[in-house]
Each structure stands twice: as structure tokens, then as C-alpha cells.
Amino acid sequence: MIRKRMAVLTVAGLAFALAGCTQQSSPTNSASSSSLLASSSSTKISENNLTPQQMVSVVTTYAGNKFGSDWATTAKQAKKEGLQVDLYPAGNYQLADRGQGVAYNVKATGKRSSLVYTVKDNDVIIYQNAEKSHAGKKLATVSRSEMVKFINDKGQGSFVNRLAQSAQVNDKRDSTSSVASSSSSNENGKYGNEGSVTVPTDMRGTWYTADDDSNGTITFGKNTFQYTGPDGTNGLMHLYKQGKLDEDTMMDQKVQTATKNWMRTDFHDYRSMHWIHMEGWCQSAGDGSYYAVHSETINGQQVKVLVQAGGAELWVANVWYQTKDLAHQNADRKFDDLHYPDDE
């Protein structure tokens, strides 16, 4: 069962929600007006409410303008052919800092590249020439807010939006990670498995909370879920639709072991919100956990948040944010339009 302080794992999503930090390494070169990827425009982007596709585009646009070379070439190719980022275990590369254990390999669609970045708390660590056989060259450590400011200052917002329109984020860890096994592969029809459940696009990525001093993160991928909390992390959880599964099968130890990284997943609409509902594959008691993307006004701006709830009335347990700073600034905050246990 997913609990408020569960030891489930962090994925990734996708999506790498970051706050401010100081750039730690010197870039190979700096952008000038003549080296920009695109002509300057008045389009501005916000560091809040970025989708995984937009976040990938932010990193690519920033690196292409800031460092040029292969990053610039890939960004320009991606504008024509589409942007693709594949997620691999960070151990697939020789990296100075593996971050949270996921390497994001950036390329133009259908091309091969050795451009990689990792995520660690508030930081994105950017590399070039990253391979299994030799160490990648670390270019910089930079926060999302710094990247967005740089992009807006250079008038590259339109380029970000153009890349994001066709960007694809693919989780490739199943085929290379030690997590991948018969217990986590999609075996349609086996043990009631009716195939992968697709997580809504606006929910994918990494979310942070500081409620109850938890300092946790969760990441939704296209068909996956991970959690990290004070008690540590667990393996990558795979989200599937569950068909008929009798009680005897659910109680079978062999089945429980084989499906330990599976979660039965469905969707519910309640209190004007669209919830993804997840439970252990062989869970026979409890309500599981529910997550829904919602919008709240924070510091005068509409900000996308992720609401976690449970129980018969879907009482709010935690609110998750796209940056660590927002999570700490709003720790244990209660919003008037959300339903809490003490509202009864």
C-alpha cells in the first residue's frame, strides 16, 4: 500500500522540478547575440508549471545557447526533426555526479548523441561526450530558475516552445536497470495484467513536498511511479490495469513476489478533480493513494500542484510542488478549496 510516508522510489520524471542554486563549473563558452539558436523574441517562459516536454526543451535551449558545440547542433536538428530525451540508469554513463540516479540522454529524434544531464535536488548537471566507456565532460551545474532567466534574457522563449511541441520523453530504464525482471515487465494476461496505464501528461515529472517535515519527492513517468522519503526509496513501480484476479491468487507468495513492482491503477473523478488511483497489485485491504493535478494561487500566481489524498472521502494527505523552494515555502499549508480530514 502506498502510505503518506511510504518508502517507494523516485522516478523520474520525469520531470525534474528544480529551485535556485549557484552554477558551480565554468562553461566552455558563453552565448553572444551572434551565437544564439534563434532570433530574439519577446516570448517569456515561467519556471512554474513546466511540463516534462517543456523542461527538456529548457535544458536543451539553455545548453545550446550557453555552450554551443554538440548541444547547439542537437538543438537545431531537434527544431527540424523533433526533440527526444531517453531516460537511462545513470550507471550507464561515466558521470562525475549521478544525481538521483537517472541520466537524461538528449538527442534529435532518430539520432544518436552523447549529451546527458542528471538531476540532483535543485540542480541540473549538464554533460557532453558522456559514454559508458569514458567519462563525460561536465559543463555546469545550474538551477531551473537560472536557466529560465537566461533564456528570457536572451529572448529564446519561442525556441523553447517550438521544441516542446514535438518533444518526446521515453523511459528506457526497464531494459537496462536491475529493476527490470519478470516482476516488473509488462506480461499482458499474467496475474490479471491487462497492460500499462498511461499517466496524464501534466502529472509526469518530479514533485516535492515538505509537509509533515517529510522532504519527499515523487516522480511519475509515462507508465511508472517512484517515491523517495525520509525512510529511503524503493524500486521503480509499474502502473498496470488489473483484470480479474481471485483471492487465492492474490495470496500466493509466488504471485506477490512476481508482482512486487506492479501497481493496479485506475482513474476516478471526484470533487471536480481527475484522480489517478494506485494500490499494491495483491493488496486486499486499504484504499491506496490518489493523486490529482490542481491549480492554486500562490504569491499572486496560478501554480500547478499535485494533490495526494486517501480515505473514503479522499481527504488531502500532502500537497506536492514542482520546485523544492515552493514546497518549503508552503509546507503544511492548507488551501481553502481542498478537503482535509479535520474539515469533517
Keywords:
Yope Regulator, Chain: A, 7 helices, alpha+beta, 11-stranded mixed beta sheet, 344 residues, single chain, 2 domains, globular, 6-stranded mixed beta sheet
Describe the structure.
With 344 residues, this protein is α+β, with helices and mostly antiparallel strands. The protein has two domains: 141 residues, Yope Regulator, Chain: A, CATH 3.30.1460.60; 166 residues, no CATH class. It is 19% helix and 31% strand. The strands form two sheets. Strands 7, 8, 9, 10, 11, 12, 13, 14, 15, 16 and 17 form an eleven-stranded mixed beta sheet that branches. It has a six-stranded mixed beta sheet with strand order 5-4-3-2-1-6. Helix 1 crosses helix 2 and helix 1 packs across helix 3. It is globular and about 65 Å long. The protein starts with 51 loop residues before the first helix and ends in a 15-residue tail after the last helix.
Question: Could you describe the largest sheet, including whether it forms a barrel?
Answer: 11 strands, mixed
Report how far the terminal alpha carbons are from each other. 25 Å
**SSE pattern:** HHEEEEEHHEEEEEEEHHEEEEEH
* Shape category: globular
Fraction in helix: 10-25%
Instruction: Tell me the radius of gyration.
Output: 20 Å
Oligomer: single chain
How much of the polypeptide forms β-strand, as a percent range?
A: 25-35%
Mean pLDDT value: 82
In DSSP terms (H or I, runs of 4 or more residues), the helix count works out at 7
Number of domains: 2
The stretches of 5 or more residues where confidence is low (pLDDT under 50) are 1-34, 175-186
Structural class: alpha+beta
**Total E-strand runs:** 17
Protein name: Lipoprotein
Organism: Limosilactobacillus coleohominis 101-4-CHN
Keywords: Signal
Region (Disordered): 165-198
